[in-house]
Prior knowledge:
Blueprint: H1 2-41, E1 54-58, H2 63-71, E2 75-77, E3 83-85, E4 92-94, H3 97-105, E5 110-115, E6 124-125, E7 127-128, H4 135-140, E8 146-154, H5 160-169, H6 172-180, E9 199-206, H7 210-223, E10 227-234, H8 236-245, E11 250-253, H9 259-262, E12 265-279, E13 287-288, H10 290-297
Amino acid sequence: MKFRKLMAVALIAAMAATMAVGCGGSSSDKSAEGSTDNSSADSGSDFDTSNDITIVSREDGSGTRGAFIELFGIEEKQSDGTKVDMTTTDAQITNNTSVMLTTVAGDEYAIGYVSLGSLNDSVKALKIDGAEATADNIENGSYKVSRPFNIAVKKDLDNEVAKDFMAYIMSTEGQEIVSNEKYIPVSDVEAYAGSKPSGKCVVGGSSSVSPLMEKLIEAYKKVNPNADIELQTSDSTTGMTSTIEGSYDIGMASRELKDDEASELEATVIATDGIAVIVNKANTADELSADQVKSIYVGDVTTWDEVSK
């Protein structure tokens, strides 16, 4: 009898221990899950919207800047007909696309802008007026922040390699590369049927057009290995003035040509590109209106909480 009682006590103790361990394990699991959930929920919670906005812009002469200030109304027309760039003097200036991306990626409170085709996952592109920055949305008209990519040559161009390369760019093969690089291609093109001449051609200008041009040059050299094409990256204004002066055979501009440039050069649109408004990935904002972007860049809005919903 005594033995049976001892066995019963031992059995009850064992069951109690097992239940305690089970409950403990369950509690531990829930605690771990809770910890994970809190970590996820806190993602971005350190972003202080009361902090000043770091405004980042491009240099004078940049086609991307020219298109950006025009599209967002930052460039204002004066009573005498002249246009004035109203970008705040507090803006940090970057001199090419890659520096813009690096600057915004390295500053939690920064805002900037880049060619849509140059956008990468180091930053976050904001919706503008509810529309995402995509090639499809540019085509359907919902994302309105877009501009042409132009190449331009002197009206009396006699460089056969330059002529043939331009024919390749505007061919089915060339425009397929434009599409593959996430730009909007030109329609109504035909297969390349060039003469594949030998010689040298210098192409230069916009740092926004340059990545696409690099791909086009690479592809063209495969069909015409006799061509020697040199690519020089600067900005749109330098691209146009250097072509007029004869330093470049083909100039690149990520904007429409100005009147004085158009009087000297013949321009060809090779693609349509969007301009993505970008912020640091830690930023809690996902969307701005066009008016809010303008207010930031002219200096009327200086902290993120002024544009937070």
